[in-house]
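Re: beginner question about structure tokens

> Can someone show what the tokenized structure looks like for a real chain? I only ever see the sequence side.

Sure, here's an example I had lying around. Input first:
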Amino acid sequence: MTNFNLKIGELEPALPIIQGGMSVGISLSRLASSVANEGGIGIIGASGIGLLEPDFNTNYREANQRALRKEIRKAKEMTDGIIGVNIMVAASDFDDLVLVAIDEGADLLFLGAGLPLKYPKTLSLDKAKKVLTKIVPIVSSARAAKIIFDYWARKYNHVPDALVLEGPLAGGHLGFKKEQIDNPDYSLEKLLTKVISTIKPFEKQFNKHIPVIVAGGIYSGADIYKFMQLGAQAVQMATRFVATHECDASIKFKEAYVNCKKEDIIIIDSPVGLPGRAIKNKFLEKVAAGVKIPFECPWRCLKSCDFRKAPYCIDIALTNAKKGLLDDGFVFAGTNAYRVNEIISVKTLFKNLLEEYEEASTQ
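And the corresponding structure tokens:
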């Protein structure tokens, strides 16, 4: 993997591997810095990051801002590598989290769960007036990419610095309708070709290199090689990084990956109005049977969530899972989570991925 040339603005990671940002406390400073130290890009998941702050239930917005500030600073103390932050556009405190991340000098912002049309109010600038924090939208279609890039070009005379294309095999919330998830017309391979064609005119218009990063079902070094041959310039992986010693989730969360079978990976209806991919457990079986889990909503963390109709609070469920309380929550996972059979170090994972890549490249 020595011949690639990934550049996002002036950022040049040693390896084209980005650890997916997993919110509600799964990817924090420990995991992100460990990935950055191996030459990848480490990502802190910002949504619900304040869950371990003592005033989270009563002071949600400030707790999230405080926790994000702490985690970015901790990550930067542990690495000189590249650190990004993943923020959901649908989060009710989206603007607050963006401003904190930029203020703390995050190298990149990965913006998903909605179309980031509004340009961040405050951007870190150097003396030459160049934007230091890179903006990377996450999309699930060429159409979404075009809407974002057209809008930014027209409104701001500027376009994002890179783009993540997330396919239907990803874990967590999905940007697809249920009937599209298993439809070969929506495979990551087909989507990638269309997105690359969509971005090319903007590269020419702004004389700017805009890497396309693929995500969703990327599991092995062979997968990395395959998609880079198809035109992607990097991959984003989340599932593989959960089953590492450095992942910030509880050991029970990680063991859910190690112990699950292929038939345990299911599509659920999330309270926020999107399908999601998760590991089946007793909590989800209760919900599927029509049991309503009572809760109070003091913050309304996601704009799209109608808490009055929701059968349970997804933030509480995911917080419980992060802590290992799986009877009161559940684990999001990608389609390949069942292939995980042990918990290893981030260093070992990178070594394995590189060996798999090299093997695929010589076949």
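Each token stands for a local structural state, so reading them left to right follows the chain. The chain is about 35% helix and 15% strand.
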